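Support case: user asked for a sample of complex input and structure output to validate their parser. Sending the pair below.
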Amino acid sequence: MSAQVSRMRAAKAQALSIQARALALAGWEDVRLKLGKDILFPRTSDTQTFFSYSEDVYDLDGNYIGNYTVKIDTRWESIVLGPDSSGNLPNLANPAGHEAVINIPQSIYPITIIGKVAEQRVGDILAERILYIELDMVNWRVIRFEDRGSL
Amino acid sequence: MMGLASIILFGVAQLTQRTLETQKFLRKKSESIQSATLGCERLASEMREAVTTPSTGDTSSWDKVIPSQTEVMGIPAPTFELTPSSPGWSRAYQSNQLITVTYSVAGTNLQRQVTGSIAAPVATDVNTFEVTAVSGRDKTFQIELAISEQKRVQTFVTQVFCPGAP
């Protein structure tokens, strides 16, 4: 009987892990859309090296399922200054003062997403899954994707 | 009196034996299902990490970034956000920074092999294994894993979207 209890516990842990992965993937979809639609996202100050946010997830009946946290590492955030309103390109050796009409994003964003399953908004975490993704903003391509484990 | 005791003991023995048989059957059944779901789960999670297109058929292989590789290919982070050198950044990991992962069936085991290491089983009692590209859906693959269990075949199907596949 005790062996059966262990097996049931293992099966439950496996299901929770898959739920946590689904939450993390929901976080990935969310950040992918934000990055794809909003050229000003993530808006950070000059001294800020990462940007993070978290979203709660509920089922259709309004029951709390868990949350996902997204952290975008902005250390590799980079842009190339475009031409100004007169069509002049910036002096790359001294770009200060150049008023570009549009800047061209050149960033590579390492993104860490953590999906957490919990019974309540404040309470024990039942399962957690971490995804690490590197997104090349120039080619809009994922160059690295890592599933960093579970439970 | 002795006869009655014998009948009761025989009955208890029969009941115990059948209970044990039922438990053995249930254990075997849950083990096969857990083995298959774990195998499917592991395969799907690893296929999602692909940076090349996974091959289809009864053997599937793809490349993924070696987990110990330095983040962002080791490119130093720029010190100034308008660093003009950023267009020259390498934007893909080199072949020596990747490993090839292969899933295939050997006998009745689904096995996983990584370049330069020995194969390890990830699911047992496997009947068939197949990876197919889902038509009309970019970078999406379907994994079918069928296991033999008590003269029955159970099939597990999962679909994976590989964001890093070209």
